[in-house]
Amino acid sequence: MRILFLAGGSPATVFAFAPLATAARNAGHEVFVATIEENVPFVEGVGLPPVPVAVMADLEILARDGSDRPAETLRDPVRQMRLVGRWYARMARGSMDGLTRLTESWRPDLVVGGRLAYAGQLIAARLGVPYVRHPWGLGDWGGYDVGGAEELASGQGGAGSDPLPAPAMALDICPPALVPEGSASAEPGQLLRWIPANLQRRLEPWMYTKGERRRICVTTGTRVTEEKSKDENTFDALGRNSDFLRELAATAARLDAEIVVAAPDDVARRLREELPDVRAGWIPLDVLAPSCDLIVSHGGTNTSMVALNAGVPQLNITKMYISEAQSTLISDFGAGLTIPVAEAGADRVEAACEELLSRPAYAKRAREGAADMAAMPSPAAVVGKLEDLAAA
Questions:
Q1: Same domain, yes or no, for 183 and 296?
Q2: What's the pTM?
Q3: Within this chain, do residues 112 and 7 fall inside the same structural domain, yes or no?
Q4: Of these four, 111, 187, 252, 288, which has the most CB atoms within 10 Å of its CB?
Q5: Is residue 96 domain-shared with residue 161, that is, in the same domain?
Q6: Cα dist. 345→218, 247, 351 in Å?
Q7: What is the domain-level CATH number for residue 115?
Q8: Which of 72, 26, 71, 61 lies closest to 47 in space, CA to CA?
Q9: Phi/psi of residue 312, each to 5°?
Q10: Cα–Cα distance, 85 to 74 (Å, whole number)
């Protein structure tokens, strides 16, 4: 069987489905990953074959139009979701030429795409093959699909009108214990155990061994950079802002704890100069997390899932509804705390860190969440469900 996986616009979307894609390859299936040019090193880094079908800079130009007002929309979750859905629908259109060329020479039997990867749904419908939706994170994402469907139905952008077909199968990575009593999972469907995946490097003993002091990991993901964004209201500006990362690290350093900052090496060099007692660099988060007592981050979907998988309490500083919805679900479960970025002054962040470190209930709930996650069906088991779907 040939399976085409479709990544989104960030490395986190590659890491999200890497375990399932790897399991499919290990089961003997052919797997390609369609992605943007900028994600090719990350697909290669997790051992999967990438096929670039677009360039992110070109897609971002297509995604914008004069009616978008991000600064205003960011303050309204409903409008934010619809706008993000419309943006991703426009980017889906921009990927269709590349996907069409790929599938003319390599026709898949099944397409797997993440939330907001609408091009996967469109290409699967055009080929007449099943489409499987693989979540990137937890929480209710239905509001994004409203905007995506509106954009595709409008026929804007010169590509004609496309419906947004429903997936033949939706995967569900939410541990059942996190689903509030009396409600359904945000992505009901075939349960799939979430397993961390990220780029690796040579390990040193301190990365995976716990010392005598409490250990706090501070990170804002893989895309943090020293380059300043021209528009701080863009949707991923918080995760890319190196000043925000340094502020979090400096605040954590006020506590009696060992501070480890997981960040790209160029950002880490400057941070080590400013905070010489802090360890910083490109550290595999899946290796580091089990040795930590707390993970402080921007609430990125991959980062907070790594913390949950490791059974470690987390403090998430959120700006986008995407991260806030997942962080709130974890906080409501009792495995962490969430603070909106507008309220995240140093004193409040420090107090939240101290609360998470000093109250054993948070660590207990985090371990319970990790145990529930570990009991879910493995990627290898779900590959069999994909085989049945393709054969039906």
A1: no
A2: 0.89
A3: yes
A4: 111
A5: yes
A6: 16, 10, 10
A7: 3.40.50.2000
A8: 26
A9: -115, 130
A10: 13
